[in-house]
## 1
Amino acid sequence: MNVTAISPLAPKGGFPDLPVIDGVAFATVEAGVRYSGRSDVMLAQLCAGTSIAGVFTKSATRAAPVLDCQAKLGAANDGGAAIIVNSGNANAFTGKGGIEAVDAVTKAVAKVLDLPQNRVFSSSTGVIGEPLAFERITAKLLELQGSLSPTRIKDAAAAIMTTDTFSKGAAAQVETGDGVVNIAGIAKGSGMIAPDMATMLVYIFTDAKIEQALLQDMLATLTDKTFNCITVDSDTSTSDTLLLAATGKSGIEITAPTGAFCDALHGVMRDLAHQVVKDGEGATKFVEVQVTGADTDADAHKIGMSIANSPLVKTAVAGEDPNWGRVVMAVGKSGAKADRDLLSIRFGDVVVADKGWVSPDYDEARAAKHMKGDELLIAVDLGIGAGAATVWTCDLTHGYIEINADYRS
Amino acid sequence: MNVTAISPLAPKGGFPDLPVIDGVAFATVEAGVRYSGRSDVMLAQLCAGTSIAGVFTKSATRAAPVLDCQAKLGAANDGGAAIIVNSGNANAFTGKGGIEAVDAVTKAVAKVLDLPQNRVFSSSTGVIGEPLAFERITAKLLELQGSLSPTRIKDAAAAIMTTDTFSKGAAAQVETGDGVVNIAGIAKGSGMIAPDMATMLVYIFTDAKIEQALLQDMLATLTDKTFNCITVDSDTSTSDTLLLAATGKSGIEITAPTGAFCDALHGVMRDLAHQVVKDGEGATKFVEVQVTGADTDADAHKIGMSIANSPLVKTAVAGEDPNWGRVVMAVGKSGAKADRDLLSIRFGDVVVADKGWVSPDYDEARAAKHMKGDELLIAVDLGIGAGAATVWTCDLTHGYIEINADYRS
């Protein structure tokens, strides 16, 4: 297998046309942090008045840039802001030097763009445990500043890739009643960069005007329904970062945590989350796991993730085997409330098990046919309550082993 | 890959010579439950006065035989007892019919051996979701009874295999001061039987005399240090069963939950647990994960299992890559208390990371050499407390994918 081949699950149309978000400009550069022959640093400049919200990995061994971003959230939003991201080196597990590198980069960006340093957010993704050659980034800041453009978001999506097999973008236009607002986002996902784990980085921009506390609230709520509902291999990066910036340049203010804007933002986040799964290492199938009838939503989520993370379920999907026994096993081990004799399972629209027993109508040939598709549904009803959740995952294939075992640092 | 090839980690000497345990007799038979051309039912008859303890899967979707065993533990021990096990069909997720099958088998054994039914324990392992053809088992009971022999434990170990690549046994002799007692145990492990998950079944016998409550206490304590510290792929069977029977025939009574007997039992259980890991699906490396310096023992166990279950760590091991970044990641995601800047990591005796940073003495060539061995050590010190735990796992290889994805039902 060629580990740089584009995922078979990549969107057929390639990178989407993303709208310009008024108040944001992008630049990218080849800084040679680790890679050569490709851009590896992206800078996003945000206009004065931009609100920024963020969510981050919950890892106890978070990387220095993550800790720095968390500390800066909620800083006064009357000045401008910036986001600087490098690929090739994650600046994780780099001790005191890692903190100094973040300080050096964000200080230099602040100086070049005339911003307070506490409004400069940074992310790093790539190898961990190696010092970040931050001077390669700071040496390029004037060049980056000189090429800032509102139309370069596609380049930004490419610069943050590690071994992602395709660059990821999504957008929405929202008719609010007061006028149109735009949302555009980019992400990097579960491509592996030897010798380290995949990292998810997501940056979403809107020209809506939204107060920071509300923006943070929206982001946290929608993350729980999108990025916190995906899994490739159950492993968690030390660098996962999601930043959402609202420039306010449309002049249209969003004041409620529900409604058309929120729905559109939800859609953009779900789209990006799905693209991350679709670029999962070695993925050949995209799987939606729908759990209903659980005791609580939290139980439903726990069961969904137990199914989505089960190596035996994931290898069954890879083998196109409608192996409902493994789904029962994953429900059982989840720790959530379950009653074997109330459990029902569907693959696509084929009822496999009904109330704890093989359905009398079970048609294995139809179930097997569903498993041959690119996009599969595993639906589980616990039959004990109203708790529900949907999560997404991919299959576990030889490609995953090749990328992570055979591809040596 | 030939999925029936013997694991490269199998004990070099083959199945060990197990001592006869006075008070236990074994028989096996070809009942054709699912397999043909091999024995698939084993019967163990236990003398009057035998105490029986048990631990079981914590799955919420436990199979019918497990629920039946749990209900019978602690029954009066003045009569004899029996254990009957079939391979080929797990009698799991089989609805009401599953309960009836357990009742039919244990009732028939009770009749043939003249025992109370509540002293007949059964296990089943194999496909799930298919009715157990229990009449094929009951039809063979007289034949089984006729061939009961104290020396047939090796045959019993073979009869309970599914797609295990080797049969598993371990034994110990203990000098108690009052005289010698014997312990002998058999197990089946993480061999896969399409289309289902692996199941662990373990039966241990001793001629020591031990009151049931103490026996149960010992078994639970030692299980937490052995079988609850192993993982192949984080998936949990609906049928895992471990029974420990003390016949009392040596006339030597054990009255304390510590001492030479307990140590020897611990050794037998650890040996069998290691053999289960060494027969993990596709395993080519046996990995001991030692965690020290954690806040609590429970945290240390959580961190150890997070490392041992991490697909990224397990593929790094498969690739012989001393990828300590993935170990940091697994510590971080475990949910246990950790401080990145106090963390130290060793591969074998090679210090890789020290206090949150690559060790100045790190010798990657020596670490890489350690990774080439069959049996590896990953040692993590959290540097924050006295909590410690050791767990064992195997690598994640193409063999695992082949067995579980390519090998179709």
Note: Confidence is low (pLDDT under 50) at residues 192-197 of chain B.
## 2
Amino acid sequence: MKQNRKLLHKVRFTAFVASSVDGRISLSTHTRPDWTSREDWQFLQESLGSYDAVVVGRNTFRAAEKRLRKRNTYVFSRTVAKTKQEGLVTFVNPARVNLATLLSTHKRIAVLGGSSVYQFMLSKKMLNELYITIEPLVFGRGIPMFSGGSKNHTLALRSVRRLNKKGTLLLRYEIQP
Amino acid sequence: MKQNRKLLHKVRFTAFVASSVDGRISLSTHTRPDWTSREDWQFLQESLGSYDAVVVGRNTFRAAEKRLRKRNTYVFSRTVAKTKQEGLVTFVNPARVNLATLLSTHKRIAVLGGSSVYQFMLSKKMLNELYITIEPLVFGRGIPMFSGGSKNHTLALRSVRRLNKKGTLLLRYEIQP
């Protein structure tokens, strides 16, 4: 663990989350949300320009496969027996490899979800920063932002930005080590 | 329905919600959250001074019974067969009474949760305004802010306030009719 932290010392992990007011990131697992604002999409695309790798879960990968194949993408999947490379995309079972070694070749890694990937990275201390876009919607159902956690994590609010007239908010949190 | 809306025309419903960043309002059903900030507590107590009634679910009532017995409180419960009055407190099964008639005697009603009460009031169009305090915490488990919904609701962001140094945020939304 100590060795892993040393390996990842220079890697910065940032999660990007788009959420409803009630903390839901999706209404169904298999499609990309169609309720996020243009401003959120622009922010994400511009931001990704400064990241040299992306981490996603299998469903998130499938929902945006075409775009993600153009990036260094790590697809987390529990059903992958052996790490598999396809062009820029690496399919990996995060429980079966040394992630620190695998990811330490990068400088800035964007974590794009879904909720079990966000939770996994948070609980493994591989998350330094969290951007949350809150769209002014209430769903009352759907996939929660984080799930399967067993302890509380404390964040520090760094900035608040209003992205548009209807009131999409962009929050930036630093995750306390 | 139309008649109900007329009855409630002059009643203003405001929900007060304290939440983690990931949209959880509680880690367990039966205790009052101990993770909310002093500033949120002060805001709530000061606000309640201008409301002449409170709506809560059974668990929320139990967790704050002593304080709530001093207010005009409506406790929603599916297990109440017949509306029952105890001092200032009315126990009522919201599915079995005409809520509009019951609540129209008040001017400003504070809805204090839990999630099924928030959801119920939202879906019955008995929610005009929503204050959400976001504490800088991630739980990854627990009770979501709204649950059991079947459609999306659009809000309009009215204000954002930072309540303290650690970054507790207070958001005010207007619910679109």
Note: The longest strand of chain A covers residues 153-162.
## 3
Amino acid sequence: MKFFLSILATILFLSFPVPGRCTDTPMSDGTQDCLGCHEYSHPGIVENWQKSSHAQTTVKDAMGVGAMSRKVSAKEISDTLSSQSVGCAECHTLNAESHSDTFEHNGYDVHVVVTPQDCATCHPVEAEEFSHNLMSNARNNLAGNAVYRQLQVSILGTPVYSESQKSFSQQAANEETQAEACYYCHGTRLEVTGFETRDTITGELTFPTIKGWPNQGVGRHNPDGSKGACSACHPRHGFSIETARKPYTCGECHTGPDVPAYKVYSTSKHGNIYSSKSDEYDFKAVPWTVGEDFSSPTCAVCHISMLTNTEGEVVVRRTHRMNDRLSWRLFGVPYAHPHSASPDLTAILNKDGLQLAAAFDGTEASDFLIKPAVQAQREETLQAVCLSCHSSSWVEGHWQRFENSIQTTNAATRNATKLMTEIWNSGLATGLDQGGNPFDEAIEKKWCGLWLFYANTIRFSSAMGGGGDYSVFADGAYQFSESLREMEDWYLLRRQSAIDSGARGSY
Amino acid sequence: MKFFLSILATILFLSFPVPGRCTDTPMSDGTQDCLGCHEYSHPGIVENWQKSSHAQTTVKDAMGVGAMSRKVSAKEISDTLSSQSVGCAECHTLNAESHSDTFEHNGYDVHVVVTPQDCATCHPVEAEEFSHNLMSNARNNLAGNAVYRQLQVSILGTPVYSESQKSFSQQAANEETQAEACYYCHGTRLEVTGFETRDTITGELTFPTIKGWPNQGVGRHNPDGSKGACSACHPRHGFSIETARKPYTCGECHTGPDVPAYKVYSTSKHGNIYSSKSDEYDFKAVPWTVGEDFSSPTCAVCHISMLTNTEGEVVVRRTHRMNDRLSWRLFGVPYAHPHSASPDLTAILNKDGLQLAAAFDGTEASDFLIKPAVQAQREETLQAVCLSCHSSSWVEGHWQRFENSIQTTNAATRNATKLMTEIWNSGLATGLDQGGNPFDEAIEKKWCGLWLFYANTIRFSSAMGGGGDYSVFADGAYQFSESLREMEDWYLLRRQSAIDSGARGSY
Amino acid sequence: MKFFLSILATILFLSFPVPGRCTDTPMSDGTQDCLGCHEYSHPGIVENWQKSSHAQTTVKDAMGVGAMSRKVSAKEISDTLSSQSVGCAECHTLNAESHSDTFEHNGYDVHVVVTPQDCATCHPVEAEEFSHNLMSNARNNLAGNAVYRQLQVSILGTPVYSESQKSFSQQAANEETQAEACYYCHGTRLEVTGFETRDTITGELTFPTIKGWPNQGVGRHNPDGSKGACSACHPRHGFSIETARKPYTCGECHTGPDVPAYKVYSTSKHGNIYSSKSDEYDFKAVPWTVGEDFSSPTCAVCHISMLTNTEGEVVVRRTHRMNDRLSWRLFGVPYAHPHSASPDLTAILNKDGLQLAAAFDGTEASDFLIKPAVQAQREETLQAVCLSCHSSSWVEGHWQRFENSIQTTNAATRNATKLMTEIWNSGLATGLDQGGNPFDEAIEKKWCGLWLFYANTIRFSSAMGGGGDYSVFADGAYQFSESLREMEDWYLLRRQSAIDSGARGSY
């Protein structure tokens, strides 16, 4: 069988010209073998790869460029790898022994899932930084947090109506639903559950079955024990720096009312100029020079990329630990607060014993958060980007408003939570203190939307200078104030009803 | 060889240079007469046409290319037509006798509305396929369905407040409102109501007055008895294949929470790569080669276009009957279900006597729907596209989650509908069984939004691999669960009020 | 000190090559001095300017082109200015004496904020027109209107919960919040509050502190007494006509449900073609020729730009008083109505004594509005654009539907307001007549959303031929009818409760 397959592979290989061969970049025998079949069976990804830097440069050449232009951060790479392009075989057979998804495939030990640990062979600095980033912990920080698990159940659970009780109970969502929902972005847990044999164009072949696959969430748990997915932002199989630097990549996960960064950016002055002029920008230049290569920032400009000025001096260093430039955590929490000191948020315990950086009354679990000095340092790093185009007074004015927005949205949330607490205490809803899920009743959802969507959107709008509609009418202050008044209205009616029926507290 | 090529280049250069009359493409006398005035009075559309393939190629030349590259599907076309470009006169005087909008215009029998029947002169396969598509029936399937008529009245009707009764009744919307709303996409009925004389730059001229005009809805009823509008996706007067292949065209009608395909696509991995790299794609290539001409799909790639692999083999055949590649109907209905066997949905009758493929309790009217074998075949057709870039295990994993989403959203809707039924039965709202419109009261609208917007958005997000926000926070599971809890909250309060007032049932 | 600084500036100037110098366009000494430091300290804006027409043309050359192509509308400009490019010094030292933000800066009297009065040196016609435009009055028209101030407080105010009263009061929003919200688009009031000394790369320097800065809102109050900000649409420091002509610029402020022009455009046929083909358009051509330079309109095409036909004849004149082409005011008001005769809306007084063009019952304050003859003239101006690509019957059909939408949405709002008035009169909410804020209670916000978002979105969708989803399911008729039924539902329950408790009117 193996013999037959290699004959077939040879035939396929000989009859279909492999595009990569047109360039002079040497390709490994392994990759040539892969292409022999896959160029035919998966033309889309093969062609995509052919156009990539991975296909068109040897690692050695990539390492030979000046320090500022280098994209390969490894100091040493084996001769075997470095003398060739980075093809199918290079990534999909790396570290085979540590991959539980490794399988024998036409004479090669291939694994399905390429992980940050694999990418670290050439890009160790980026992988290391990313491992200390909140994103690589995105799965854990959700699944390992008891409060968020309650939120998740209240949203994703399947409602079951009891005709006798005339009310709903909630069944936990199955794994497929979870993988499509929260964990699409946060990352699934990939687990090899067995192997199966399939008919393919080259005959019967055996492949691993992987629970949680496919997935490219930023905090994915991989079959080699690593966390994250570089392909979340560097999509397969072009791994284009251009795509990662454009805002659409971030928009995949940062677009809904819970984290409206992309929407706010799109209607900001920055986003306007980007949309209008970005066809004149150079998204591939490394280093990336302010003014010369682009004249309006994208997400990557402010949060990730290394920038230089026209003198070639570094404005800001590259980082794949994006919170290096972020002093405040704005979203996914009732109260904005200084970022957590550790990217593992599950260790946080606030005064109420919850894994949230601020208690429901707003009191911060300060021991777990970065100190003002660290905040100041991160601000300075980010503001170095702003100052490339804006005067100090502009930047200070902007920042002052941003911190004001944090204060006012936190204060507004605190006030709304006082009413919610009154509702819980009066027995009209069942909160944590009453042994219930604080997110699953109608009135609780109203309260939750207040901070999860609206306070949050106001903050994003303020942070990114988007102002205008997202601060006010598009999931902003209008909707915040409306929800708040609806909570009040709800409460007053039920309180009145309770009084009227002489049955207060019987709800 | 080089000599031959330079001769050929010279010939090509001489035969097709610059747009319009400057080119050597022969133009009919009729079209030249039209341009005599219209180039001046309507420069926008004339210039647009000048840049089109219609202006720059004779039909004969268009028919002369290889079978795979041919865009003209007619086997034979009259010499008169085929020896010239396709200009104003060609389309606007075709089949004059069957057009009730034909009028005498400077010596020509011209009609205003060009219809699929006109386009079929050169593109009969596409017109025929489209006539068997759901879209060409879009007007009928809405206007001819008693349930949807009730939905339409509940939405578009003008509310009239009675000060004595202190409540609203609904007046049917007038035809102008209907044409701006549902029938903007579904298509109006065009009806010649008379003729009127206008002053023009060339003196007094007579034109037909057409009720329902303008409109380019996909299921438009035309003055020649045909249905549909090719210009819905191939906008006048460039009729560009590039525009039809880009996602913005589909986004014109598929963008709201009722059918959020474009929004979901925009934030999907596919949409991200498209936005980032599509300036490098070739949107005019026929055949359209995966990987070579594009590396991320648009709507047309998955649902309409003929695709080839890099060997020139057909991956999937072209179809203008888009449901050829769709096994499930996802939107516009309470329950997702196998597609209808016929594109005319008005013939469906479910167990409750409604023209809906599934009854309110979820029971399918199976006799009217495609069988599992047909579903399987359609899945295979669509998955052939996926498999150009993804492994079998990827595609299977995706599909399994998609079908899970159908099951869970249907189950959730079924549960919500049980509560709605309880509300109807208890007399707190007036449903179909009580002789009322099931969509027009506040609580009914809450229930309607559940499936029409939220269950639906979850399914689209799942189907298109968009995941993330549209599954959860952007019209997804969060909003579904919130509406459900609000329905419950509404019911419990009114039930309690009824008990308290000792007047249960008096509502 | 001054001496030291100019020495330093000279050193910096000599050591860093100034890109602009590569071109042959003469640059003033002042601008060269500015660039000496700022090329290093603000590379982003300097590079942006280098690529602009301001940097690459002398004023004299810009004035020398034919009348139709001229962008400089001044008839005479001093020799000093006109013989050079328009650089930093030209704009930031103009009219120094009238700027309260002027400060001594390295030997120059520099002001921070460049205003329409400064731009008027070369572009007086545009500045004059803009000063008569609603936009330059956007701050006043909001801040100077007592009704809108109540709306603003109800939205932006910080809620304060009283635990004893168990209800909320509203604290007025602080100036930072206002500047981030309404006045981000409407414009802040810039006020020099003092001067401060900062450490800079060239030593200690003194700068003015400006309250309300940064801001680029269209109705900004400037330190020279002028109103508006050209940079709202012509972003610093490229001032690109291309950017102003693309729809993203308008989308910065016209995107939320209160004014969804950009969203509606994006999904319209016009927006589809723009998205698909605009890379082939010429956005810099002056004059701008229909069909030749573009084949689908952007916002600027219909509302601002001068257009010519392919014969070079003017289709429509350029205007920076955008309401020149607008007969109806559609948004931000309960009822659509003929535009105000004056751009200062604060002078309007309706029959109820409010500064609104129509009273809550819909009665127009006709004395303040343009007459039908003026409306007709404006329609004709706008329709001249439509007629470049559409037949008269198309345009008339469209317009008839648009005016129908105005009638039906106004009628629907009138009916909803009757119910709201009943609620106010019955004491269930506190409106204007009861001495309250008519926008701050839950039921009032429901009513407010009806017209501010939904009636309004229907009208925009109708006006811009976007039809479809924005007319119906995306903040359109569905949401209008749902809110209306929820108002009714709210009222009936409370009325019933009041009857049941024998305490009607006690609310």
Note: Residues 113-239 of chain C form one domain.
